[in-house]
């Protein structure tokens, strides 16, 4: 089953992405699959913040882990709604999620 996730890129264009829930993907990998400008330099290990995004609506997300919190405490352009895309697995709970890509640092 796919879920709809909306992602606003750095130019303000909103992309409506169909995200498969059966492939163990995360938001960073989804962005890369749709060729959105997300680096994911560390390969999804919460060690670079190049997949930082802002959560724009109230959708149930997994709790932030220690690694993600530590990385965001050192990253640029962090806001109260910042998350690392690599730490958000795509599940049916994400239906309707709206994100905005953080500026590149």
Automatic annotation (TrEMBL):
Signal peptide: none annotated. Keywords: 2Fe-2S, Iron, Iron-sulfur, Metal-binding. Gene3D superfamilies: 3.10.20.30. This is Ferredoxin. It comes from Flavobacterium plantiphilum. The lineage of its organism: Bacteria, Pseudomonadati, Bacteroidota, Flavobacteriia, Flavobacteriales.
């Amino acid at each position: 089953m796919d879920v709809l996730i909306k992602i606003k890129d750095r130019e303000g264009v909103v992309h409506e992405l169909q995200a498969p829930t059966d492939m163990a993907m995360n938001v960073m990998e989804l962005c890369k699959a749709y060729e959105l400008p997300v680096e994911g330099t560390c390969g999804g290990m919460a060690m670079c913040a190049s997949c930082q995004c802002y959560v724009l609506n109230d959708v149930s997300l997994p709790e932030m882990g220690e690694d993600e919190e530590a990385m965001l405490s050192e990253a640029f352009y962090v806001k109260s709604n910042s998350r690392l895309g690599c730490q958000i697995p795509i599940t049916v709970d994400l239906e309707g999620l709206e994100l905005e890509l953080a500026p590149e640092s």
